[in-house]
Write a structure and sequence with these properties.
mainly alpha, 3 domains, 85% helix, 0% strand, globular
Length: 356
């Protein structure tokens, strides 16, 4: 009995320490989320750029020249994306103020068909929503992109400066060449799969955004560029992003025109685009790339959305890929990797894709 009690006490103590460690990690994730989000984005950009540098190296381009060109391209790209997004948000804010009254009047006309009770309920609901607060919050979040871009660029620059020493550090840290090789292979596997996902997802999102932009231009609507950029960004959030983009698009059309016919036409075309791409091309192109459990993706979205907000929903899938591959290499965490994988085969690589 003493042996059993001792074993049970040891397990309880281990579990208690695990709960405390998880709580501390969660606390640090929340408190340092701005820095950690920038660090994760810097790692992703570094990973994507490393593939490009490796491709240049195969073309006999000097490593220092490829690295310098990559850093310049990253700096220009980050600053351009941040300023463009801030400009689009400011345009949406200024235009929303102009169209706010028109949108409320159009919604009131639509609700008249459903009777006074429904009309009163919709009016009460709309009055309870702080649209001005949401718009100010979006503008404030967008303004943080500039400072975040500078921090990300700093992280990426130092990562490139340490790039050639990373394998040596891993070997000296592990003290075993075979174990160091396994660690590096795990890192490369994570980078390959995340890069493959981001490239394919960017292409799908770009096509979707282009179609939405075309619909807006054909209908003669304003904010075509802003809606297209918003669609492109939100489509990186699995499932929920396309729904949010569709709702926002329909709301923008209603606010601009106040015409139910135009709103239904554009809304129907938007839903058709999102449905066809999201249910046909997206699974076909990304299914073999991710090999992640759909339920696991939903859990990852919920967890990282609570911890890191909107940025967490964008990073949920890459983080989940990394966690699954790492857990697959650790025997006592392998059940977690199996549960996170789609077919219970976390180590299996997709048949085709980017290669280092």
């Amino acid at each position: 009995m003493d042996g059993r009690d001792s074993h049970l006490s040891e397990r309880l103590q281990t579990g208690f320490l695990g709960v405390i460690a998880f709580g501390l990690i969660l606390f640090l994730l929340v408190q340092a989320r701005f820095i950690l989000i920038c660090l994760v984005l810097a790692i992703i950009i570094f990973s994507l750029t490393s593939d490009a540098i490796s491709a240049f190296a195969r073309l006999k381009v000097p490593n220092w020249l490829a690295t310098t060109l990559a850093l310049i391209a990253i700096a220009v790209g980050l600053l351009w994306a941040a300023t463009a997004l801030v400009a689009q948000v400011n345009e949406v804010v200024s235009t929303s103020i102009v169209y706010a009254d028109r949108a409320q009047a159009a919604l009131a006309r639509l609700s008249q068909r459903w009777g006074p009770n429904v009309q009163e309920a919709i009016g009460t609901f709309m009055a309870s929503i702080d649209f001005a607060g949401w718009i100010r919050s979006a503008a404030a979040q967008a303004s943080n992109l500039i400072s975040g871009s500078v921090l990300i660029l700093t992280f990426v620059g130092f990562m490139f400066s340490e790039r050639i020493w990373f394998p040596i550090k891993i070997e000296r840290l592990t003290g075993d060449p075979d174990q160091a090789r396994q660690v590096l292979e795990t890192v490369h596997k994570i980078m390959r799969r995340v890069n493959r996902y981001l490239v394919v997802k960017a292409a799908i999102s770009a096509v979707t955004a282009g179609l939405i932009w075309t619909i807006f231009r054909v209908q003669g609507l304003e904010l075509a560029g802003a809606v297209a950029m918003l669609t492109f960004i939100l489509n990186f959030i699995p499932t929920l992003g396309s729904i949010a983009a569709t709702v926002i698009t329909i709301a923008m059309v209603l606010a601009q025109t106040g015409d139910p016919t135009v709103t239904l036409t554009v809304g129907g075309l938007t839903v058709a685009v999102q449905f066809i791409i999201g249910n046909v091309f997206d699974p076909m192109l990304l299914g073999q790339t991710l090999r992640l459990s759909s339920f696991g993706i939903v859990l990852s979205l919920a967890f990282w959305g609570v911890v890191w907000g909107i940025a967490g929903t964008f990073l949920a899938v890459p983080i989940m890929v990394a966690i699954m591959i790492v857990c697959a290499q650790i025997p006592w965490l392998r059940p977690v990797a199996i549960m996170l994988s789609q077919e219970g085969l976390p180590e299996q690589e997709p048949a085709s894709g980017l290669r280092r």
